[in-house]
Structure formats: C-alpha cells, structure tokens
Amino acid sequence: MREGSLEAPTRHPIAWQDPDFYDEAKLDAELRRVFDICHGCRRCFNLCDSFPRLFDLIDGSESGELDTVKSEDFKPVVDACTLCDMCFLTKCPYVPPHEFNLDFPHLMLRYRAVEQKKGKVGFFEKQLTETDRNGHVGCHTSGLANWASGLKNNLTRPLLEKVAGVHKDAELPEYAPKTLMREAKTAPPVNRDAPAFGRKAVLYATCFANFNETSIGLAARAVLAHNGVETEVLYPRCCGMPQLEQGDIARVADGAAEVAAALAPYIDRGYDVVALVPSCALMLKFEWPLIVPDNAAVKHLADATYDASEYIVEIANKEGLAPGLKALDGGVALHIACHARAQNVGRKAAEMLSFIPDADVAVIERCSGHGGAWGVRKENFPVALKVGKPVARQAAGADKAYLASECPLAAHHIRQGVERLGGDAKATPPERTLHPIELFAKAYGFLAAERG
What is the DSSP code string of 315-352? Predict the structure, then answer.
C-alpha cells in the first residue's frame, strides 16, 4: 500500500443512474467504511462542522468506536457538509488513486440523493434552490423583494424565518432591477490595440450575476473589451449547484445537457467560456463531466471553461494586458473561495490583483463557512459564523479598504462575521465588498466600485 497524497487526486464518475447508488444497505455499508477511516485519521477536524460532528458522535458512543453508532445518527454529519470539496482536495490522503478510494463529499451527495428520491427534502428547502424562478420574480419586483428580505425589516424577516427556515440575521443578496442579460444588450467597444485583440469569450452569466450583482458581469465585460476580447453574455439556465446540494442529480444532468448544447455553437466558433462565479465554473469544469460523462458537448464545454480571474491571468501571461491600470487606495483583503480552490488552478484572483500597480493584497485562504443556501438556514447560520470566524478575524486584522471574494455570498458572510467579532478583534468590516474583477475594473477606471 502506498502512502497517500503522493499522486494527484482523481475523481470517478458519479454512478447516480446505477440502482445500487440508491440501495440503502449498500449506502450504509459505504458510510461506515468511510467514517471508520475518517475516525482513525482526523486530519479534517478543522475544515467544517461535519468532521467534529462525526468524531463527537463516535467518541460519545458506548464503545468509542463506530460499531455502537446508530445509522440514523449519521444525518447531522451529512447535513453539515457544504460540498466545498476541501477535504477531498487539500486534506485527505486516501482519495483516488489510493486504494481506500475515499470521496467524502460525493458520499454525502449520495446520501442526499437517496433522501431526495425518498421525498425527504423539505418544501421550502426546495424553493430556496429555485434560483431562476426566484431571480426572475425578484428582479421584476426588486423594490418589494429587497424591502422584504432586508435585515432591518423586523416585520418580514422573523416571518421568513418561521415559514421558510431562513435565519432572520443572515444577510440575503438583493435583486437587481434589471438582469445582466438585459443590461448586456449593448456591448462595450473592443480595444483593437490591445495585445489580446482577436480573442472571443462567452460570459456565462450565472444566476447570481444575472439576477443579483450584475456589476460583476459588467465589470468583467468592460475589462475584457479593454483587453481586446469580444464578448457575448449568455444565460441558458442555472448551473444546478443548488439542486446538487439537495441531491437532485437528475435535474443537474438535464441542466448540464441544456447549457452545453446552448454554448456549443460558440465554442465551435472559437469562443472561450468564462464563468463569473467559481461555484458555477466548478460545475461546468468538473461536476458536470462526472454526472454526464458520456455527453461530448459537456466535455467540450468543460475544456473551454475558465473562471473569470483565471481568464484574465491567462491573457496577462500569454498576450499581455492592455495598459491603464492604476493603484487602488487602501488595499484589499482577498478571500480565496473554496470552489475557486477546488478548481485546482492556483490563487488566480490574487495573481490577477497583483498586476495592479502597488498592489496591497492580504490573501485569506480558508473556508468562509457560508456554503451557499446552506449558510442562511436557521439551523446553520450560527454554525456558518463559527466555521468562518478565523476568516473574519483575518479580514478584520488585515484592516483593508476592500473585502473581496470571487464568491460574493462568502464576502457578505465574512463581513457579517467581522461585525460579530466584538472584543475578539477589531470589529470594523471593510467598507466595500466586491468581486475581484470589479476591483480590476476600478483599477482601469471603468467602475466606481462603491457597492456595499
């Protein structure tokens, strides 16, 4: 047996169409096999709340071993997993190709897929994942929707907590009055003198940039146009990460096929694909090919997809950036999101911001604790703050003018964490919370970057 972590981790396709995948006895046997390995290793004790829950469960059992733990007690361990993939990619020495063949996040996904098939996913939990429907309604009624979801609304937020299970203190993203698709109908002029002139890219808008923070997409488009890149903005539908978190793999597979088919003609004409949010880039690059491994269009799309920061860095390294970048006052506390790290391309957001003159970037490389829709649930929000507390401390201690993360939800969550530090640290969050591409656009002089 070879020692773990000596080879690059590999992932097997998710066998969600195999009847054995949903066999509860076989699932339980695999849970016990993996949990026993984790119990004997414990390298992941500080990553998220799943592992402390698992270890406390085993340590508190009659024998102090897994044999006296009831299978029905596994659910809290599964519920605490945010599918961030950090255990698989950064900690576990037993991932494939090691013969133990341990993939903790995908095992948690399998458990949720069984629950989903049995109808155990709650009604309001499902409604939170309907990002396209919610986004269209939210944008059409943005004034009312943002008023109702605002933290200062003492009328609707307690009601939302009681009815939908959304914690009354969890910050929710606002809806834009116009979608990014509507705002992107007029393309910015392309700089023909830029070194990268001739490149073409499709910006996959993502549900968040399309319905919530459209400034991310507008900033990316302005930066790319200045660097000679012709762009189109497309949004066939959500990447399916919210549905994946609930175990609805079949729906993710349908979405993957639809989006891949919509983007295929552009890829065939030489367009690159740039995803504006790292969770979505991760889905297109890695999760979709594991869910529909026989779909050639999905594989083609995965090979053509870049994270936004990754694409700017490639332009800088291959052709060179167009001139015009100016220093940002006050510095940046930059959080490297888990789903950006999971793409295994390096700290591209930090590398991109380093191209700004006199760059002052404090990099924070640890889980924010948010976990998408997971972190706003009533039962999870306090845990999310606890998991993200080390990140909040680092952000507060950095004392920068800007807080940035490629995951906008993580950035807002970190800011909430800083506000709650109290006497533990300087509890003054950075005034502005942005995506790194917005800071890059500001350095070029395109955006004021004043969004809170």
Answer: HHHHT-PPS---PPTT-EEEE--HHHHTTTS--HHHHH
